[in-house]
Amino acid sequence: MNAPADSADVRRRNLALVLRYLDAHGPCARTEVAVGTGLVHATVTALVTELIDRGLVREAGSVPSGGRGRPRRLLRLIPERVVILAAQVTLESVHVMAADFRGHVLHRESAAHHAPYGDPRALAAVIACLVRSAEAAVRDATPHAHLAQLAVAMAGPVVGPSHLVAAAIDFGWHSTDLRALVAAELPGLDCPVDVVNDANMAALAEYHALAAEGVRHPDTVAYIKADTGVGGGLLVGGRVHSGSHGMAGEIGHLPIALDGPECRCGTRGCLATYLGPEPLIRAAGLERLAEAQGGEAALAELDRRLRDGDPDAVAALGAAGHALGAAVLGVSGVTDAGEIILGGYLATWATWFRPGLEARLAGRRALSPDMQPVITFGVLGGEATLRGAFQTCRDALLDDPTSVPVTQRTPVGGPVRQR
């Protein structure tokens, strides 16, 4: 009874195996794919034919076999066949990026959303407007590309398969189906829509970016970021671990003081009340600028003052560094993370956060230096979340190449149609 489904699953897994091998090692010949994947040559030939039919792979010339045999025909991916859309929501803006399968950016656009507190529908409309603009640009540039997925990265825990945003505290939402709201605004969009946690996406992107630079990560890695909010993620074996309710790594609302400032989450002394943009802006004396021009402008001015050595700006980050150190101690004690990656402006302003951070960690390091996590600073800055969302969609496609439709080929020079 289950044989057809099992057969389809095996074929899908084998297609993914071949596609991932070509992604990592191409261009290469079918014989190399067979050796590298452990699949028999006849199976590889059939699978490659299907990947070619789906427009994901093409033959790209040949090279001598090294003996008397026929030349080896090389295979390579077709990166322009697939386009992925990624959107990031911040407190003031929406950012959208369209990129092909290799990550080449085809379109990028940002806009202020001015969404009223507590109204996700207004924000969904802005997201949809930017996505429509990105889709039009992609269709103009690559009319035959397959639009694979739209991932919307949002602050707050995102719960399981339902993709509900459980709580977006800074936006005044609770248990919001943002995916359904965005999809309703985009009735003609012919691709799946997913909502993902922004900090988890940034954690994943920084993890891979640092690995590409030679960093060898331990099994358990925690991530803490601050930009337009404070968040975090937990990676186990290189994969995001979201916990039972999507809350794993949500460090922004970890209480670090029993009698600290009140937080909008309903408790006191959360890390966000010390390390978030609003507390830093206030501590640096930039409240009026934020009220007049917005938080992003105030953060840009804070950056300028830090680099000019402004004493109020330097003192604000020094104090925040102590709060960050307290959070690092808490996270490392609970997760036993071997590494903690700091991202967003925690990395950009590492010079000014580091003294307070190191002072807070010094006692524990003196007591048990071999048991403390390595502190690593991220390298992607503001790109991390969009890049992580893109990578998540790309990994999903690599896992299931059958999600890309078969193309119907026409004579050379003619269009390629999907069916």
UniProtKB/TrEMBL annotation:
<dbReference type="Pfam" id="PF00480">
    <property type="entry name" value="ROK"/>
</dbReference>
<protein>
    <submittedName>
        <fullName>ROK family transcriptional regulator</fullName>
    </submittedName>
</protein>
<dbReference type="InterPro" id="IPR036388">
    <property type="entry name" value="WH-like_DNA-bd_sf"/>
</dbReference>
<dbReference type="InterPro" id="IPR000600">
    <property type="entry name" value="ROK"/>
</dbReference>
<dbReference type="InterPro" id="IPR036390">
    <property type="entry name" value="WH_DNA-bd_sf"/>
</dbReference>
<comment type="similarity">
    <text>Belongs to the ROK (NagC/XylR) family.</text>
</comment>
<dbReference type="InterPro" id="IPR043129">
    <property type="entry name" value="ATPase_NBD"/>
</dbReference>
